[in-house]
Amino acid sequence: LKLRFIKGYKITEIAAKLGYSEQYIRNKQTELMKRIEFKNIT
């Protein structure tokens, strides 16, 4: 998630950098996003 949302990498770049398939990275991102409880910060 750090590479995706903080450093601005694309899914394809993350997959190449970490040596995983794009689908694996997409699945992990989806799984982690479901686990995070987002709070409304105002």
Short description:
By secondary structure, the protein is mostly helical. Helices cover 64% and strands 0% of the residues.
Topology diagram in text:
Layout: H1 2-6, H2 11-18, H3 22-35
Fill in the keyword field for this structure:
42 residues; RNA_pol_sigma_r3/r4-like; single chain; mainly alpha
Question: How would you sum up this structure, described in words?
Answer:
InterPro entries: RNA_pol_sigma_r3/r4-like. This protein has helices at 2-6, 11-18, 22-35. The protein is flat. The model has no long low-confidence stretch (mean pLDDT 88). It contains 3 helices and no strands. The two termini are 23 Å apart. The chain has one domain (2-35). The protein is an all-alpha fold and 42 residues long.
Mass-distribution shape: flat
What does the average pLDDT come to? 88
- Rounded radius of gyration (Å): 12 Å
- The number of domains is 1
Structural class: mainly alpha
Quantity of strands, as a count: 0
What string, H for helix and E for strand, traces the elements in order?
HHH
Proportion of beta-strand residues: under 5%
For the termini, the CA-CA separation is: 23 Å
| Tally of helical segments | 3
Main sheet properties: none
Oligomer: single chain
Low-confidence stretches: none
Q: Residue share in helices? A: 55-70%
InterPro entries: RNA_pol_sigma_r3/r4-like
